[in-house]
Amino acid sequence: MEVITTFLNGLSLGGVYALIALGYTMVYGIAKMLNFAHGDVIMVGGYTVMVFFNLTGQPLVAALIAVVFCSLVGVVIEKLAYKPLRGASPLAVLITAIGVSYLLESLAQIIFGSSHKIVMLADLGKLILGSLVIDLNTVVTLLSAIAIMAALTLFVNKTKTGKAMLAVSEDRHAAELMGVSVNKIIMITFAIGSALAAVAGTFYILKTPDVSTTMGAMPGIKAFTAAVIGGIGSIPGAMLGGILLGVIETVCNAIPALSNFSIAIEFGLLIIILLVKPTGLLGKKKREKV
Amino acid sequence: MALLEVENLEVSYGLIKAVKGVSFTVEKGEIVALIGANGAGKTTIMHAISGLIPKAGGKITYNGKDVTNLQAHKLVPLGISQVPEGRRIFQELTVAENLEMGAYTRKDKKEFDETLSYVYERFPILKERRKQVAGTLSGGEQQMLAMSRALMSHPDLVLLDEPSMGLSPLFVNTVFDMIKDMNALGKTILVVEQNANKALSIANRAYVLETGKITLSGTGTEMLADERVKAAYLG
């Protein structure tokens, strides 16, 4: 029975990683940059949830405000920090992203101080089915993550804006020739990615009620790993990579002999997958330009 | 007034001047060909007109409006559509989605359906494969898709950049037939081609481009008969 519980926990953690990984992969696919400040948007979401949860006592309201606020933060970051560097060397953009990451962490530290805050968002209780004990927080996280990923998949594949995102991701110039404003599509991508980070931040607090300026770092790096494992730039790849990493981490933690090595195993998996399939599990080989 | 007027266009790549003061006009309803060898600056001129690259000097007027510094995506709603070199269709989208992308700036559903049924009638293979990802099409079929996609934005002016490049003789004929058909639909055409023979045979007027400058111009028939053109481009 414990196996089922562990597996569910893994899927739920994986769902959170997948939501974050989607932000990395969409921004990489469309703006062709690695947004290393993405993990810190999770942290911004975490603090926003904390502030509005303390004010209203409503976890859902706090989460919704965090989603809106983080989308705005994402758009502003893109506009002020990344947009002026369109066409600059990837290294300049990368360094800028790292700078933005430190800026966000420092701002949070100035506003909220450096001590960790405990935020008990909600305890939905446990579901007991015979000998099977399931934490309802886990179930809610998993189901919400699945619903959001399904909605995102529909949005990207069925709407005009979504298809324009795919078109920009494949060939920016050709998309421009269709009348697509690439700047607008990049802005929308940052808004969506940051909104997903806010959701992930909320679920993270639900699981570990600890808010700090560096809370986004580890999930950010793991989700980035997940995005690369799945094939960076690929939306289904980010989902698969996130879930895979979450399950592996949780299973490793549940086995006493492996629990000390879970992080090593996760990053080891990354190395192995990159050796065997450098484009990631669902990544496509870059088409040669004619 | 010409539909498209290019005056003294200059484009540089770093220190290298690729286009050195090129002027030409395209009148409404015409087919105009721009011919020249590899590296003459044909594609650069196309990219400059469609706003994909910055200009070092000169002026481009479309329909009386100065469009010199307009971004690429803002030209599409004005009625300029481009079939880019190498086709540049969206390989991972389906054939139907590629056509939808072509109509990205259009809102009229009825007009969309009409253009779509024209395209599907003109190229039944596209209808047959509409649910297939476009990357699975052959080169010639991809070119048909690229030309059809350009029609979906309801353009007045269609820019075609090396449309016959890399295609089998059969598809080369299809491409030039389609250009004539587009023209018959009322579209003004500016085509850049290395296949000078074919391009001149359908063009009302043509310009010859050599290392960033226009060296000759005249009607399609005049150019086909011109000894210098024959020697350099018609083999």
Short note summarizing the structure:
The complex is a heterodimer of chains A (290) and B (235). Chain A is mainly α and 290 residues long.
State the total count of DSSP E strands of chain B: 10
Q: Based on CA inertia axes, which overall geometry of chain B fits?
A: globular
- Detail the poorly predicted runs of chain B: none
CATH level 3 topology of chain A: ABC transporter involved in vitamin B12 uptake, BtuC
- The CATH architecture of chain A is Orthogonal Bundle
Walkthrough of the structure:
The complex is a heterodimer of chains A (290) and B (235). With 290 residues, chain A is mainly alpha-helical. Chain A has eleven helices and four strands, in the order H-H-H-H-E-E-E-H-H-H-H-E-H-H-H. Chain A has a two-stranded antiparallel ribbon. A two-stranded antiparallel ribbon of chain A has the order 2-3. Chain B is α/β, with parallel strands linked by helices and 235 residues long. In chain B, 38% of the residues lie in helices and 27% in strands. In chain B, a hairpin with a 2-residue loop joins strand 1 and strand 2. The longest helix of chain B has 16 residues. The model of chain B has no long low-confidence stretch (mean pLDDT 94). Chains A and B meet through helix 6 and helix 7 of A and helix 2 and helix 3 of B.
